[in-house]
Design brief:
Elements (H helix, E strand, L loop, with lengths): L18 E5 L10 E5 L9 H13 L3 E7 L8 H22 L3 E5 L2 H12 L3 E5 L4 H13 L5 E5 L7 H4 L7 H15 L22 H11 L13 H9 L5 H5 L3 H4 L13 H5 L5 H9 L6 H24 L11 H9 L11 H5 L6 H13 L4 H14 L3 H15 L6 H12 L20 H7 L2 H32 L1
Parallel strand pairs: 2-3, 2-5, 3-4, 5-6
Antiparallel strand pairs: 1-6
């Protein structure tokens, strides 16, 4: 349904290749306002979709508004993910209304109903959306295209990837090796500075919506209480930039130099960028991270090159996989060689078979695996190296590869702050189904899928030190939680 044609307008502030026309309206732009339906890129700064919406509104001399739809249950997100998102959006509303005089409208329910209804009410001529490769969002967009008036045009802008997903490649890529050259070739064209965003020429007449953020956040905290919010990661654009560039503990300013050597050592979590929650919720642009990182290349060439490989090539490969492979989260999405080898070994004898409940509660015979699971459950983030070991053990300890991938994705999406993300799905699929990997020496259960074990981890890092670190971390979190509950009870008794 989506055409690869660019909008038929004069020169735009956004490169034409970054914009796709999902629906060509029958009326020329300018008969009504522009609405940006924000979903994946939840930020004011460095947002190509917002830049395009304002640019089109100014060209037509019409106002612009941002609409956000809060899905009741998006892929099982709990208080941890929704609380973080809502607190970021609360800041975003203040920023966009105060600095750009653009109204922020929040809707609840099904976007297939709320967005077309809003477009009809305000008489919009153009809907701008940001891009997500996930099937639920694509299906929702297809439905919106059907439901909106034929007079409305719909543009989709890839504001998440540096090289737009559809420009980087028009097919499912086999591995990082096959997509890397295509992306690198296009970086000079797409890895550019963002234009300065000014308030739109024409103001929206309607009064700004009053949003009771406190009640919304309290509501998601109550409903999703089984996975509570975390404290270590402060939400919002300002906090994201602080993590990237801060004078105190910024990734590029203070922690970058050891990235290439230390990023795979679970006992050195600060060696990682710690930006994945912000990138997932679009509270920071990957393009901004890459632009800033390039400025440090002379100082730390190896660290910057390693980081840009992860940030650009690997992240964008994940979007490619989820867009061109409809079965991106199941055994059906594995390459044929991997599916065959996994099925050949599906009935191999396992030393342990654990239920979903045992795995979720970290009740296995492997203290290293238990520690990684507890780190994720309580801290909301498992170290990247441990995610690989964690997922591969799930393959080893469940009835077969189909169940393994289901459990792996369920736990990842439920507890990781950056769950429900293309990078998360591809991480699970790489570990269990060999996606973007190659075949290795054949062995029981795994077949030709890459194998990892406890002894290998022990050779790589201080396993006992990591287990002790997680034990301390979880103990501190539980202690703070108990103190917080006690202080809340004391307050209630005093009332």
């Amino acid at each position: 349904m989506a055409s690869l044609s660019s909008p038929s307008t004069k020169a735009t502030a956004v490169q034409a290749g970054r914009i796709r026309v999902l629906k060509e309206g029958s009326q020329p732009l300018g008969k009504g306002p522009v609405v940006y339906w924000m979903f994946r890129d939840q930020r004011v700064k460095d947002n190509w979709a917002l830049i395009h919406a304002v640019d089109q509104a100014n060209k037509a001399n019409v106002p612009v508004a941002v609409a956000f739809n809060l899905f009741d249950q998006f892929l099982g997100a709990k208080a941890r993910q929704l609380g973080f998102m809502l607190k970021g959006l609360r800041q975003l509303q203040t920023s966009i209304e105060d600095n750009l005089q653009i109204p922020f409208c929040l809707f609840q329910g099904e976007a297939e109903e709320t967005i077309p209804k809003f477009l009809e009410e305000c008489g919009a001529s153009l809907l701008v959306t940001d891009f997500s490769p996930l099937r639920q969002i694509r299906k929702c967009k297809d439905e919106i295209c059907k439901r909106v008036s034929d007079s409305v045009t719909i543009h989709e802008v890839d504001a998440h990837n540096i090289v737009p997903m559809w420009v980087a490649s028009d097919k499912l890529e086999y591995s990082a090796r096959t997509i890397r050259g295509k992306i690198i070739k296009l970086l000079p064209e797409y890895l550019i500075d963002f234009p300065m965003l000014q308030p739109p020429n024409k103001k929206w007449d309607a009064r700004n919506q009053v949003i009771d953020w406190d009640s919304l956040i309290a509501d998601v905290s109550r409903k999703g209480a089984e996975v509570p919010e975390i404290e270590w990661c402060e939400p919002g654009e300002t906090a994201a930039m602080e993590v990237l560039m801060g004078n105190k503990d910024g990734f590029l300013t203070k922690r970058l130099k050891n990235y290439s050597t230390d990023r795979n050592i679970p006992l050195k979590p600060k060696a990682l960028s710690c930006l994945s929650p912000y990138l997932h919720f679009g509270q920071i642009s990957a393009q901004r991270c890459a632009l800033e990182a390039r400025g440090f290349r002379k100082l730390y060439p190896q660290a910057v090159d390693t980081y840009l490989e992860e940030l650009i090539v690997r992240r964008e490969l994940s979007d490619n996989f989820c867009y061109y492979q409809p079965h991106y989260d199941s055994l059906q999405g594995a390459w044929e060689w991997a599916r065959k080898t996994l099925m050949d070994h599906a009935s191999d004898k396992r030393e342990h078979i654990y239920t979903m409940e045992q795995l979720e509660k970290a009740q296995t015979a492997d203290p290293l695996w238990n520690a990684s699971q507890l780190e994720m459950v309580h801290y909301g983030k498992m170290h990247g190296f441990m995610r690989m070991y964690w997922a591969k053990k799930i393959l080893e300890w469940t009835k077969g590869p189909k169940e393994a991938i289901e459990i792996c994705i369920y736990l990842n999406d439920k507890y990781e702050l950056d769950g429900r993300d293309p990078s998360g799905y591809v991480g699970c699929m790489w570990s269990i189904c060999g996606v973007h990997d190659q075949g290795w020496r054949e062995r029981p259960i795994f077949g030709k899928i890459r194998y990892m074990n406890y002894a290998g981890c022990k050779r790589k890092f201080d396993v006992d030190g990591y287990i002790a670190y997680v034990k301390r971390l979880v103990g501190e979190i539980k202690k703070r939680k108990a103190e917080s509950q006690l202080s809340q009870k004391t307050k209630q008794l005093r009332k």
